[in-house]
Amino acid sequence: MNRRVTDWQFKETAMQDEITVTGLEMTNVDTGETETVPVDDQTAVIFTNGSITDSATIGDYDTPAPENPDYGAAASLWKRATERFYNLGNPDKFFANRNASEWVSFTLTTSNHLLLNEITRITTQVPGNALNSFLSTRPITPLGHNDVNMSIVVHHQPHFTTQKPNESVIWGYFLYPRRHGEFIEKPYIEMTGKEMAEELIGQLSKVDPGPGNIMDKKSAILDSIINNIPVYMPYASALFNNRAKTDRPEVIPAHSTNLAFTGEFAEQPYQMIFTEQSAVRSGEIAAYHFTGIPMDWLVDTPRYDKDLKTLAKATKKMFS
């Protein structure tokens, strides 16, 4: 625990394409001391080669989240491996262009359900099943299609087991953090937790169908806020970046004897990205492979792209 793995040690082979990890170099984040952990022939190394929360920073109600220029701990280690072997993907496709992946989010806690009830009234949806509402307030096409600046996610309450019965917790995020707010005159990335709450109330007011308007209750809502924590995530949507098939390594790369890749930056055909399923399945594949369990024992992946009933429904939906 409390170690950051910074580099690999690999077995030297004649062809230089056999991937065998023999050691891991790491730093004790508490003391700064470096150490090496040997990897023997009976040990597998299962590596999550990137994280959408890498380099994330946290602010508070009165302070914006600072920017962190770090390339990312997991991605940096992945890149070190690609410098040695040619078939382990291309981390730069995901972690070298923050403009394509950065978000700023907030977690808002209130001492009553006033804001939650207002969101339910405006969206006509009750909290639960990760109620996800995109707030679209500015037309961007001649046909009146609306641009999307932010989204809120409202789970069934309590979201955390330690919540008090009167408390509400919601999460939200700004898709383009360097755009200026509509109600706070600064970029979203520079907003404090309080300013993000004010921007949220303002954007909700623009789509409020009535009767009345949430803006009339702004003071009461702000008074109910226990905390609102802004978070800058430079790689929040990196897994959706444009990529080629070879930009992500296979879970078990060719010629690997003891190294496997897991998570949302490992290539897994027909798996849904941005969910726990792909991350868990990659770990299953790695564990099955190294322990000799047949891959046939994995749960089948439904091929809805070849299911006639699903295709018929999709076609009907396209023209409805």
Output the CATH topology of the largest domain.
FAD/NAD(P)-binding domain
Beta-strand content bin:
15-25%
The gross shape turns out to be globular
Look at the structure and name the CATH superfamily of the largest domain.
Answer: FAD/NAD(P)-binding domain
Number of strands: 11
Task: Compute the number of structural domains.
Answer: 2
Average per-residue pLDDT, rounded, comes to 92
The CATH first-level class of the largest domain comes to: Alpha Beta
What would you say about this model in short?
The protein has 7 helices and 11 strands.
How would you explain this protein's 3D organization?
The protein is built from seven helices and eleven strands. It is an alpha+beta fold and 320 residues long. The protein has two domains: 3-54 and 69-96 and 241-305, FAD/NAD(P)-binding domain (3-Layer(bba) Sandwich), CATH 3.50.50; 103-233, D-Amino Acid Oxidase, Chain A, domain 2 (2-Layer Sandwich), CATH 3.30.9. The model has no long low-confidence stretch (mean pLDDT 92). Strand 2 and strand 3 form a beta hairpin. The chain is globular and about 75 Å long. A six-stranded antiparallel β-sheet has the order 5-10-6-9-8-7.
List keywords for this structure.
D-Amino Acid Oxidase, Chain A, domain 2, 2 domains, single chain, 6-stranded antiparallel β-sheet, alpha+beta, FAD/NAD(P)-binding domain, 11 strands, 320 residues, 7 helices
